[in-house]
Structures are given as C-alpha cells and as structure tokens.
Amino acid sequence: MAGSDIRMASTTRIDQRSAFPPLLVSVLLLGIADSVVGPYLVLFAANEAGLSPLQVGAFLSLISVSGLVVSSWLGRRYDRSASRWPAVVAVAAPAAGYLALTATTDYPMVLLIGVGLLGAGLAAFPQLFSLARTHLDREDTSIARRGTPALRSVWSLAWAVGPMIGAAVLSRQGYDGLLLFTAAAFSLVAVPLLLIGRTPRTEQPVDAEADGKGISRTMLVAAGSFTLFHTAMLSGSVVLPLYVTRTLHQGAGDVGLLFTVCALIEIPAALGIMLLPARFPKRPVILVGMALFGVYFLLVAVSSSMPTLIATQLARGVAIATVGTLGITYVQDLAPHATGRATTLFANTLTIGSLVSGVLAGATAQALGYRSALVICGLLAALGLVVLVSSRPDRRS
C-alpha cells in the first residue's frame, strides 16, 4: 500500500510538473490575441463599421459589462468543479466573435456579437491563472509562487510585441485580416490546455468564508484598492498619448515607444519577484508598487522631454508588474478554497477600471488640462495605497 501511494504521488508530481509549459504557451497566445486587436478595435468600430463616438463607447462598455458577468459565472463554475473547460469556453467565444465581425458591420449585430461573444474573452485571463494556481499548488507552493510571476512576464512580453504584429497585419490584410488573425490566435489558446491533463481536485471548504459564498471584508477592501490602481493605470494610458502629442508636440511614434518600453520593463520586473523569499509578505511590496505608481504620474506631469519620459517608464513598468503579479496571488491567498472566484475578483477590478477610466480621463483632461489629469491619476494610485493599508488581513492568510 505504501509503495502504491508513493508511485501515485510520483505520477501526480510528474503530471503537475508538465502542466506549466502548456499554461505558459496558453498565456502567451492569449496575450498576443488580446494585444493584436486591442489597440485597433476602436478604429475598426469607427472606421470600418462607421459607428459614432457614442456608439463606439456603448460597444466597448457593453463588452466590459458582459465580461464582468461571464467572468463571475465561470469563476463560480471553476470553484464548484475545477477544470480547463471554463477556460476553453472563454477563448472559443471570442474566437467565434471576431470571426463573425468579418461578416457584418450592422450596429445591432455588432452589439450582439460584443455582448454575447467578445465579452467572454475577458474571463480567459483569470481562468488561466486559476488553472495555474490549482495545478502548481498541488505540486509545491514554491513552484506556484514562481509560476505566477513567470506567467505574468510572458503576458507582458505578448503585449510588447502584439500591437506591432497587429499593425503589420492591418497594413497588409486590412481589418478582415486582423479579425481573422485574432480569431485564430484565440482558437490556438485552447490547444495547449488539452495537454495539461486532469485538473487536480481541490479541498472542500471548511467554512462559509472559505467557501466564497460571502466575500470577506478584507477581499472587498483589496478589490477596492486594486480597482483604484487599475483606474489610475488605464486613465493614464488615455491621457499620456494626448499629453505627449498635444502638450509636448511629439509624434505618434513616440507614444508607441513609451508603451513598448514600459512593457519590456515589466518582463524582468515580474521575473524579479520570483527572487523574493517564499515567506516574504506580499502586501508591503504591493504597497511599494502603488506608491511608485503615484510618483510616476507626478514625474510625467513635470516632464517636458522624451528622454525624461522614457526614464519614467522604469517606474511605471516596475509598478504595474509588481501590483499585477503579486495582486493576483495576494487575493488568491485570501480565499485559498475559492481560487476561481478570487482570481476573477482581481481580474474584474481591471474590467471595472476600464469602464470608468475613459469617461474619467476625458472629463478631467477637458476640464483641467492634461497635466492636471495626470496628477489626478497619481492621486488615485495613492488612494488605492491608503485603502489597502486600511485592510486587516487574517493572520492565516
């Protein structure tokens, strides 16, 4: 009996160890699928489908709302029975959606495709990271600790190269070619998932809070903090191009350079988190990342040259990598028996931030100017820090 148990444990360890490379490939492909179309979806809606600014805004907002609903549903589905199939659904739906957009630009149909299919794609990110946590935790918690930063660095790598791939496809094949490429990329995300084997069974929750039926106050406070951070991040992404081109009178190519430099810095920053000791607390490091982000916005607001702006991307990349990487595991640790819902809760703070950021950035920039809008983004990041400081996590978490 003991020998059988040892062999079973050994087999399980091998299976779990082999799950990481396919998950790494899936995250890379998902990042490419998101990033090749992300910067150009607005242009497709406005130029190809002929939508008005209001219609474009409604289209994007409805995708975000749909993503919140689908992500929450699939997160609960994952916690009831952990498996790779929610992730497969989350990538198959947008693959079908982008394929469908090649056949119609009728506004009601575009809205229907966005709500019914594209929104589900927002659930893919938390589903892949939930799978990674479940598989890698069963082997060794230290591997799970290193796995999340590695996956996050691959995500940053995809966003560093994806927009350039999208621009090349768009220039040669037009919007139909870009949409077909995106649909194919989303479809390919599912292929490595077929290689990870059966998802390990999770332990049954021992109490109501662990079950995730009632989200704890600590998780709500953390979610509020990360929502403020992501709102600052996305609002800043709206204001920065306008500030660079209209206030500093730099070219559009300089804007792309800043975003590329930031994405490249995120990669080693995320990998560097792997060097932290296993028992090193995450919360103080996250707080440092939020503080650094607030400083970044202040530095950009007083910058007037491209070399200075490029230097500020070091702070931006480190802050985004730190909060984005450790934030996922921090929330997961608060609900170890509800990995799907915890990961989805963190991912939804980004979705909520995207809903708020466009209106917030546009209104503040128009009313107060671009420099003031950047300062407000810094204050949002600082407020997120204050909110997280106010939380009192359970010592066991």
Characterization of the model:
It is built from 15 helices and no strands. The two termini are 35 Å apart. With 397 residues, the chain is mainly α. Helix 5 packs across helix 8 and helix 11 packs across helix 13. The model is unreliable at 1-17 and 204-214 (pLDDT under 50). The longest helix is centred in the middle third of the chain and has 53 residues, at 141-193.
Task: Please provide a brief summary of the model.
This protein is mostly helical.
Largest sheet: none
Mean pLDDT: 85
Distance between the termini: 35 Å
Q: What is the CA-based Rg, rounded?
A: 21 Å
Approximate strand percentage: under 5%
Q: What general form does the structure show?
A: globular
Tally of strands: 0
Give the uncertain stretches in residue-range form.
Answer: 1-17, 204-214
